[in-house]
Amino acid sequence: MAYPYQIKSLEEYQQNYQQSVMDPEGFWANVADHFYWRRKWDKVLEWNFKDPDVKWFTGGKLNITENCLDRHLGTLGNTPAIIWEPNDPEERHRVITYRDLYNKVCQFANVLKNNGVKKGDRVCIYMGMIPELAIAVLACARIGAIHSVVFGGFSAQSIADRIQDAQASLVITCDGAFRGNKDIPLKSVIDDALIGCPSVKKVIVCTRTRTPVSMIKGRDLWWEDEIKQVETMGNPPCAAEEMDAEDMLFILYTSGSTGKPKGVVHTCAGYMVYANYTFVNTFQYQPGEVYFCTADVGWITGHSYIIYGPLSAGATTLMFEGVPTYPDAGRLWSIVDKYRVNILYTAPTAIRSLMGYGLGPVNHKDLSSLKKLGSVGEPINEEAWHWFKDHIGKGRCPIVDTWWQTETGGIMITPIAGITKEKPGYATLPLPGIQPILVDENGKEVKGNNVNGNLCIKFPWPGMLRTTYGDHERCRTTYFATYENLYFTGDGCLRDEDGYYRITGRVDDVLNVSGHRIGTAEVENAINMHAGVVESAVVGYPHDIKGQGIYAYVITERQVHDPELTKKDILQTVSRIIGPIAKPDKIQFVSGLPKTRSGKIMRRILRKIAEGELDNLGDTSTLLDPVVVEEIKRGKL
Ligand code: PRX
Question: Ligand 1 centroid vs 47 CA: distance in angstroms?
């Protein structure tokens, strides 16, 4: 069998789960045995959640790219590793076999070396969804450089923040990126970002859109020219750097409830084992299947389930450059039809938006190749779940509603395709190795079934974050200090009569807009930077397509004369500071915000008003000035 650790039945799931709790080290050692190690580990796990200090497979030596590439060459050399579908359906697609990918990764790894990149250096990657993005990521991993991929929708300011935090020495980008009918000028955004980033010595630019770009002498280099240099050197092989199990593999920035985004750190061995294990099991991947995840590599889903999970399993992963609605709302179904896709992994927000176009775009598409469907990123409402099940899966494909986070590295709570009995809206059961626990506000365990609580995890798993880059204390306070000896997810959760888990959404000040994670404090800081703004408060409200929309209450210095123009100005500011994904959907100008006597904004009240629950504001007795609330209610949008 291709994957000896692949669960085959519900019984086997239960046995594996039991074993993973009774003997976690033995359980994970059995899985890890099926990877290629330069040197096996001395100890499977050392941990405490107090510092926190978590180490998996200590003493082990490996390189993740040898597991994603080299070890497949003998058996899968001619098998497609990446199938790439361009934004424009008229453009030729690309098929990259495992051998091609290996060669290209080695070649570009040599480019990085020629440009002085060494093990441990940080490399920022800001590219569109083209195969060169996967090649860049793997080339970094090959030489032990730590990649920090930044999603193409973030602004120059956001990129600069991330580059400075990581002290990246090199940036890999493209001239531009095609997304739907847009052409995003990536290099020009990078040029703006780099004004404040003296750590960056080189920028490698891959050609995609042929958008004119400025190339700075001594700093900026064309990807294609650099590849030619390696070719003139006779394409020397690029030996993989031997990495320690706990060496950093990558940093990925994500939003929290306070301050700037933090750099979540994942390390080599544990992340590899976990991304692979969860991919193979959740989707029940079978050799030869075509697997399509619609996420962007700029997010954790793309890292774990477009690149590392599938490639380490020798799977065929389909990478799509465009958006589900271009050139029409049938694009995803055309792709499924064109490549005979077997597994489709997407987000509720995409499903909801496509539902809105009716069945026209689905009809006449041959979706008979589909065997398994997946959902990720936000709670999936029952209507979307059923539409996905009935009209895409034609009633015969299991849906896996996978709950996890940037910090968890891989899927945590999910049905196993075709094995776990599913229930719409429920992520169902934890994968082996995952020990969820619900607690009340005081950290007391909420036991039994039919209960609600804050979702925590009480035992380490290999894919978990190890630190937040450059600030371990922030990692401790954010995730490990709320409840003693527990990892706190920030999510609320209920456990039903069957012991199934249903994620109810964030319990902190983090929004989930179209599956994108955004901190309310971040949006407020951006709004507050706009001239004339005194203070603002941002909350989420239910949005039919995006899941959550952003509602901003804004106090200005002077009365606003042209509210529509001022709103547009504020949106422009937010776009510039964070990126278009953080633009509020609604802005209401107010003269004050509801505060407690100690000066804390009462967000609960603002949330209720944004949700339209004007008559149900709850306890308002601690309000400093109740008149403010009446005014806000009158002006509700
Ligand atoms: O609130 C949960 C929600 O997304 C958050 C994690 O966001 P991020 O780190 O960007 O990772 C998204 C992709 C893994 C979680 O704290 N979330 C994720 N998956 C689900 C979900 N909420 C409900 N159901 C899910 N399946």
Answer: 25
